[in-house]
Amino acid sequence: MSARRLGNLVIGLCAAVSTLPLAAHAGPARFDFMEYIATGQDAPAPEGSYRNPILPGFQPDPSIVQVGSDFYLVNSTFSWFPGLPIFHSTDLVNWRLVTNAIDRPGMVDFSGLGTNRGLFAPAITHHDGKFWIVNTCIDCRGNFVITADRAEGTWSDPAWLDFGGIDPSLTFDEEGRAWIVYNDAPPGEPLYEGHRAIWMKRFDTEAMQVTGDPILLVNGGVDLSAQPVWAEGPHIYHIDGWYYLTAAEGGTAEQHSQTIYRSRSVTGPYVAGPRNPILTQRDLPADRPDRVEATGHADLVQLEDGSWWGVFLATRPFQGQSTLLGRETFLLPVEWRDGWPIFLDKGEAVPLVVEAPDLPASPGEPWAQWRDDFDDPLSDEWIGIRNPAAKPLVEVAEAQSELVLDPSTDAAGSLGKPAFIGRRLRHHSADIITQMDFDPEAPGDFAGLLAFMDESHFIAVGVEEGQVTVRRRTSADQDQYGETVAAVPLTDAGEIELRMSLDRGTAVFAWRPAGSTQWQTIAGQVDVEPLASVYAGLFTGMVVGPYAVTRP
């Protein structure tokens, strides 16, 4: 069931918890629209080419599968709900969000989890007419598998799997046997920090459970003597009589890379390829133009013309390793040399403009500019923090074309259920505008726009008692509601518009009475670089949208 079909239940922007934080003072905050306008856009790619990333913004850990002329791709979502977005394309370049695989209350439980926990690294597979996703829910029951007859859903409830580790991926060998390959602790005591191993177990597709003893495929990484760290995200492909195992190595920051191994048997032994890593940017100069970092966590697909392509995650920092966008999904052709695949030679930079594959054109999402007037159920692009609640904190009032938020006592900096719904920031520079009506009734009542990286890293602009305020949190030591950066008197009663203008590491905040053409600045050139994902656990990216809170 997609988010759109959930209608006024609002896609679970709310959460299945035993106690629901109710507003102590404030009445509802009403939002008439939200508009997103990318500014400072790159020129369109030349005809026959495409521009990386193919999925901009918070879209990490991509996994891809081809079924006939259709491609489907899934990403990590951690403790955001709905989770595991599934995209469709026919040309590998332009993608449409068709559903979220985790879209029903009770499928998983994110209550009390930070936004760097939850759903890590899903892997999507298709076999004998059925789609499979295997995934790990960190701090929420571990590994599971879900299935669907169609990628667009409905997806089954999770079947929980009895083994440890993370990043499971399902593969079928030439005899039709199913296997799950995954990351876990190495045999014996770890030799160093970050020492991991790649393992395999048989999977019974009828019982929906792993069987037998684990089989060690890779200990540590390509060269154990070099103390490789965080071997993870494995996938296995059967190609021309060989089983190829690809895995990430080096951690998901600037040392990230992709490696390759092969074996004549699905269970190994696996031998590392002669050119490893087959993808990395860690050896390139920091002052290069159009800098892409943190490349890895790749998945491969072969087209009908015999060519190979791979999706992978990477970042586009605006300085150092800082980006508000988080880890994004990129696409590159894969070359085969002497029986081994390779993305880029050592020292070769990820190109941002690439010749497109020769495939039927596919429509893409209008990410650069969109507007939601809240006169229809919310699309699958809208996500909230943690589970859906017994009583919605966020609802669409279609008859009034309004998004209505019941302020929660759980602030953005808490591990509870904030009254917040947002969409991913997808550009370094963007204006986000909303029109709202809110009547704060006590000190601490606040409603407006929130730009959220994680519980300790966010910034908000909104209405408080008698003023319009910018609040920011850059550390867990600060007030969970955020600390005041700037405030100006609210000189007009009634509906107002708010604008948040993000530009890499700075932001400008403004307001105006509804119907006015003159923006009034609340704060200019606010430093938002401390909100970058590199300071917030690296996993997520910024999500922006309406927010309402009241102090208990």
Automatic annotation (TrEMBL):
Site positions (Important for catalytic activity, responsible for pKa modulation of the active site Glu and correct orientation of both the proton donor and substrate): 167
CDD domains found in the cross-reference section: GH43_XynB-like
Domain Beta-xylosidase C-terminal Concanavalin A-like, chain residue ranges per copy: 371-549
A Pfam family assignment: GH43_C2
An MF annotation (GO) of this entry: hydrolase activity, hydrolyzing O-glycosyl compounds
Keyword Signal part of the UniProt annotation: yes
UniProt protein name: Glycoside hydrolase family 43 protein
Organism annotation: Croceicoccus marinus
